[in-house]
Amino acid sequence: MRRVAVIGPNPPCGSLSSDRFVELLSQRLGLEAFSLRPAHAMAFAAGAAGQVPLAARSATGVFGTARAHVVADTLIWLRFSPRAYLRDWLAGWLDRLLNGAAGARRRASRAKLIDFGRSCASMLQPNAVDRHQIDALHPQLLFVELSSPEQALFWVEMQEERVRETAPLAPQ
After folding, report:
1. How many alpha carbons lie under 13 Å from residue 149 in its C-beta half-sphere?
2. Could you tell me if 160 and 166 are in contact, meaning their C-beta atoms sit under 8 angstroms apart?
3. Are 141 and 129 in contact (CB under 8 A)?
4. Residues 163, 169, 172, CA angle at the centre, nearest 5°?
5. Does domain 3-80+128-166 have CATH number 3.50.50?
């Protein structure tokens, strides 16, 4: 894992946005990570040496002028369920009730009720990321799908632990 592309969550979740997740990957794991905004009819194609160019194309199947071409060997899809948004929204209110003004300030960075509604509505729409296309790229691409902010943070912690375990011991 050297270059990581992060897609989602859509809509952005207050407690863990894609930009915050990219920041965690860069700081804690030292990876080159970047965020991609899901686009309608986003296309993925395999490239040379296990690298995967990611490009958005138009609904007609022809690459348009707004094409984005980036190279990554890992794709992380933050596909949070409506339950994750509802829990985050409720946690914000509970924090406000228990901690007063300090909780109210922290609540501003939490999911809103409209985010929960949009996540429910997004379940009825076709995905921006075509799952069949990603399945075809499994030999060239490490694909990770995370369904809640808690799962995403746990995944980062486990990757940190993995790096620590595989790091060579310093001579004494």
Report:
1. 24
2. no
3. no
4. 155
5. yes
Q: Which helix (H) or strand (E) element contains residue 55?
A: strand 52-56
Do 32 and 6 meet the contact criterion of CB atoms below 8 Å apart? no
Burial string for 110-135 (b: 16+ CB within 10 Å, else e) reads bbbeebbebbeebeeeeebbeeeebe
- Residue ranges per structural domain of the chain: 3-80+128-166
What type of residue is 56? A
pLDDT, tens digit (0-9, with 9 covering 90-100), for 104-161: 887 777 788 888 888 888 778 766 566 676 676 666 778 888 888 888 889 999 999 9
- Tell me the pTM: 0.70
Cis bond before residue 9 (omega within 30° of 0):
yes
Q: Is the peptide bond before 12 cis (omega within 30 degrees of 0)?
A: no
